[in-house]
Amino acid sequence: MAHVLAPWQAAYSNSTLISTSVTTVHVVSLVFGAGLAIAADRATLRNSRSAADEKLRVLHEIESTHRPVLIALALMFASGIALAAADIKTFAASPIFWVKLGLVTLLLTNGLFLERTETSLRKSGNPRTWNRLRVLATLSITLWTATIVAGTALVNA
Q1: The Cα angle at residue 103 between residues 156 and 27, in degrees rounded to 5
Q2: pLDDT tens sequence across 137-157
């Protein structure tokens, strides 16, 4: 695999523009994705016990964050692959790298459950579904935080 990725590794290693651009896309997409998601999660937790009309307003607000968060996750994933491909031997052997990939997978899975739960709430408004949404929002905040910690550990490992 390292042989196949050698041209990319050389380009990345020999170009400040390329390495800076890829790293910037990775960090900026993480900041925007995590920021928007955590703000939506916080709104969910803050308003989950509010009146029905306020809950509906929050659901519509949260719905508008899905596309930007998904775009940020896609950019974060693509730039992460580019970063890993620039030094595949190091990353492939790093347990922290695999933990971070697992956390990103859990983030995506949790996002899918969040979106499905929100859709269900817009249709039914069931109080038990609000409890599930609270749990998923809490898990989202935890996963974003853990992903950031893993990324920091990976850079410093």
Answers
A1: 50
A2: 999 999 999 999 999 999 887
Domain covering 6-156 in this structure, CATH number: 1.20.1420
d(C-alpha 86, C-alpha 82), whole Å: 6
Per-residue DSSP letter, 50: S
| Overall pTM > 0.90 | no
Q: CB of 151 within 8 A of CB of 100?
A: yes
How many angstroms separate the CA atoms of 54 and 43, rounded? 11
Interacting residues of 108 by C-beta distance below 8 A, sequence separation 6+? 73
The Cα-based distances of 62 to 112, 121, 145 in angstroms read 13, 12, 19
Burial, 121: exposed, middle or buried (Cβ in 10 Å; 0-12, 13-18, 19+)? buried
Task: Break the chain into its structural domains and give their ranges.
Answer: 6-156
Name the pLDDT band for 55 (thresholds 50, 70, 90): confident
Q: How far is 84 from 94, CA to CA, in rounded Å? A: 11
